Amino acid sequence: MANISVPGNLTKGVPESYPLDYRIVATVLHSLIFILGVVGNVCVVIVVRRTPSMRTPTYFYLVSLAIADLVVLVSALPEAVYSYNIYKRQWSFGRFGCSFWVFANFLGINVSSTSILCFTVERYIGICKPLLAQKMCTISRARKIIMAIWLFGVIYSSPWLFLTQTSPYPDHMHMEYCHYRLTRKEYVYFYLADIVLFYVLPLLASITLYVRIAVALRISILHMPGKVTITRSYSPASSNSNLARPLTVRSPQAWRKHNYRNTDEKRAVVQVRKTFGKQTPQNRFHERLSDCINEKVRHSEKE
């Protein structure tokens, strides 16, 4: 945040102001970032809330991330835009505003990092451990994890409510500035803990999980048979067992030579030909990736 500083870095005399060109550019850019960020994250929350099919653990973690980003945007950007148009280091939101702004900023950043890590773990389980995902990746469990994330974030960030204060501006007693209670050297341990817990460890964990996901998909592609598996969705309202039976379609070169078992399979093959008739690199990639994931699921079910 622009107008929060460590004690002892203000000089006496006439307070300085930001140059006019700097104020204009910074105000416009920060305002655009604020508007786009708020609109985008609010849209994510609204869409997930109004779409029943999107109420899954994955989207729940994305909603948690969107809310955390909103906390960061609201706690940082409005104050920054306001600070560009007053004196440097001047604070106008009182003692409570000084503490709450710092607390909310750290809370949003820490919860954002943790939500991304939980989302990554959920994707890893869903792709590499599909059978385990049926037990662990549930909406109720996701809600409990999200509540634990926010509770931990509030508890961990709460010391900042007591580690900030306001003091009179030098030679201008009617003005205040917001600063930390301790010196810069005394805050080293707090910053190191933040970097390790919410940056280094989540980054290393995410890299490890995504590498394992890539390796698992690569192995599945290498051992995948040369055919496309199409699984039609099962409707609980229907008792027709054919709706849950996968259709096996051979490679595009063998489509015309294949003897179809029934009319439904022929229609499915026609639809596949329409989709993958033009074998562009994008179509081949999505086709192979879909087959890879299906093969991984079948292999896990056999185990």
UniProtKB/TrEMBL annotation:
<comment type="similarity">
    <text>Belongs to the G-protein coupled receptor 1 family.</text>
</comment>
<dbReference type="InterPro" id="IPR000276">
    <property type="entry name" value="GPCR_Rhodpsn"/>
</dbReference>
<dbReference type="GO" id="GO:0016020">
    <property type="term" value="C:membrane"/>
</dbReference>
<dbReference type="Pfam" id="PF00001">
    <property type="entry name" value="7tm_1"/>
</dbReference>
<keyword id="KW-0472">Membrane</keyword>
<feature type="domain" description="G-protein coupled receptors family 1 profile">
    <location>
        <begin position="40"/>
        <end position="218"/>
    </location>
</feature>
<dbReference type="InterPro" id="IPR017452">
    <property type="entry name" value="GPCR_Rhodpsn_7TM"/>
</dbReference>
<protein>
    <recommendedName>
        <fullName>Thyrotropin-releasing hormone receptor</fullName>
    </recommendedName>
</protein>
<keyword id="KW-1133">Transmembrane helix</keyword>
<keyword id="KW-0675">Receptor</keyword>
<keyword id="KW-0812">Transmembrane</keyword>
<dbReference type="GO" id="GO:0004997">
    <property type="term" value="F:thyrotropin-releasing hormone receptor activity"/>
</dbReference>
<feature type="transmembrane region" description="Helical">
    <location>
        <begin position="59"/>
        <end position="80"/>
    </location>
</feature>
<dbReference type="InterPro" id="IPR002120">
    <property type="entry name" value="TRH_rcpt_1"/>
</dbReference>
<feature type="transmembrane region" description="Helical">
    <location>
        <begin position="100"/>
        <end position="125"/>
    </location>
</feature>
<keyword id="KW-0807">Transducer</keyword>
<comment type="function">
    <text>Receptor for thyrotropin-releasing hormone (TRH). Upon ligand binding, this G-protein-coupled receptor triggers activation of the phosphatidylinositol (IP3)-calcium-protein kinase C (PKC) pathway.</text>
</comment>
<keyword id="KW-0297">G-protein coupled receptor</keyword>
<feature type="transmembrane region" description="Helical">
    <location>
        <begin position="189"/>
        <end position="211"/>
    </location>
</feature>
<feature type="transmembrane region" description="Helical">
    <location>
        <begin position="24"/>
        <end position="47"/>
    </location>
</feature>
<feature type="transmembrane region" description="Helical">
    <location>
        <begin position="145"/>
        <end position="163"/>
    </location>
</feature>
